[in-house]
Design brief:
Elements (H helix, E strand, L loop, with lengths): L1 E2 H18 L12 H17 L9 H6 L3 H30 L12 H11 L6 H32 L1 H15 L14 H13 L9 E2 L4 E3 L2 E3 L4 E2 L3 H5 L41 H18 E4 L23 E6 L4 H5 L2
Antiparallel strand pairs: 1-7, 2-5, 3-4, 6-7
Helix pairs in contact: 1-6, 2-4, 4-6, 6-8, 6-10
Bound molecules: protoporphyrin IX containing FE (HEM).
Length: 342
């Protein structure tokens, strides 16, 4: 029996840190260093705090009368995180001073190395502060959202075993039994992409998008909106509106089959849209697609009991499953050879 939320977190954080710094902080061989422990502590605190909305951000009067505790904890956490990131930058700076040729050693540069190289040619723009900010963006905006999507998707599949079978058959058909799924095959797996889109339609990680602000007075749908107003878009309502979706409460991955994206009329936009739309959409679709695809390809999945997986969500600004998903899995005999060769 596996705690899927924890496993998805570890997977996504490892993937992000490998991109950022070429390091893994979770897993049997990488978990023991002091650095890894510190990173994990910071992440636990980050996700605890990110599930505690700061009312003062949304109800201005609370800024003056409300408790300042969350803000204080956020500031302290930020200092800790910044210190950790700066140490990573210094470590890479030292290594690059000795040898700036990681690419010639047969590996690609990680994000810190790329940004430190750019710092040499454009020091005014690529300051350490900018590098730390970019590292944080990947960790903060990219982790929770991807983990939530994976957890909801697998929960839906456990409650819909026929869809799970169909997904497995699609992968077996395209990949055979001697190759593990990789990024380049995702384009050939429409049903898997349909599962991810349908999950993002029913359980969008940002159900109200990010708060936006009107830059000037305007009228929208007959409503006058003064400039400087904080605006939320009720994305969940749009993506589950019975006027524009057939059986919106039903999980039907095939509805995305013929009409990729279905962005027309803004019916479906789990990554937002326009200038402030999510810049991580491509990365997110790859990470979620690969994780889900490999799990479906390599294992048989089952609920832990007879009853359906509980799909209740936790109240808050992001769409998190209330209870973490636990699931039973068994390696598929046909995949033993491929897995043993990894
Ligand atoms: C399934 C995964 C993801 C979903 C559903 C998602 C969704 C969103 C949404 C709805 C927004 C707000 C858009 C708006 O208000 O118009 C957003 C913003 C953003 N996302 Fe994502 N995201 C995901 C993964 C990622 C990843 C992997 C990264 C980076 C590596 C990322 C980076 C960002 C950033 C930086 C913003 C702010 C953009 C801005 O304000 O200009 N996201 N995302």
């Amino acid at each position: 029996m596996v705690d899927m939320r924890q496993s998805f977190f570890e997977l996504v954080l490892n993937a992000m840190m490998r991109m950022i710094a070429g390091k893994r902080y979770y897993g049997e061989t990488d978990a023991d260093s002091e650095e890894a422990k510190r990173f994990r502590e910071i992440q636990v605190e980050t996700f605890t705090l990110s599930n505690t909305p700061n009312l003062g951000d949304f109800i201005p009067i609370m800024k003056w009368i409300g408790p300042k505790r969350t803000e204080k904890r956020l500031t302290e956490l930020h200092m800790k995180r910044d210190g950790f990131m700066q140490n990573l930058i210094e470590e890479h700076r030292k290594t690059l001073a000795i040898d700036d040729s990681s690419e010639t050693q047969g590996r690609k540069k990680n994000m810190i190395e790329v940004l430190l190289s750019l710092q040499k040619t454009e020091p005014e723009y690529y300051k350490d502060e900018m590098i730390r900010a970019l590292m944080l963006v990947l960790l903060l905006a990219g982790t929770d959202s991807s983990v939530n999507t994976m957890e909801w998707a697998l929960s839906l599949l456990l409650n819909h075993p026929k869809a799970l079978q169909k997904a497995q058959a699609e992968i077996d058909n395209i990949m055979g039994q001697n190759r593990l799924i990789n990024e380049s095959y995702l384009a050939h797996l429409p049903y898997i992409r349909g599962i991810i889109s349908e999950t993002l339609r029913m359980y969008p990680p940002g159900p109200l998008l990010m708060p936006h602000e009107s830059s000037q007075d305007c009228t929208v749908g007959g409503y006058w909106v003064p400039g400087g107003t904080m605006l939320f878009v009720n994305l969940w309502a749009m993506q589950n509106d019975p006027k524009t979706w057939v059986d919106p409460g039903e999980f039907k991955p095939e509805r995305f089959g013929s009409c990729e994206g279905m962005r027309d009329g803004f019916r479906f936009m789990p990554f937002g849209t326009g200038r402030r739309g999510c810049p991580g959409e491509g990365l997110a679709m790859s990470i979620v697609g690969l994780a889900l695809g490999s799990l479906i390809q390599c294992f048989e999945w089952e609920k832990i009991g007879e009853e359906m997986v509980d799909m209740k969500e936790r109240s808050g600004l992001n769409f998190t499953k209330d209870q973490p998903l636990y699931a039973k899995c068994r390696l598929r005999p046909s995949m033993v050879k491929v897995i043993s060769e990894i």
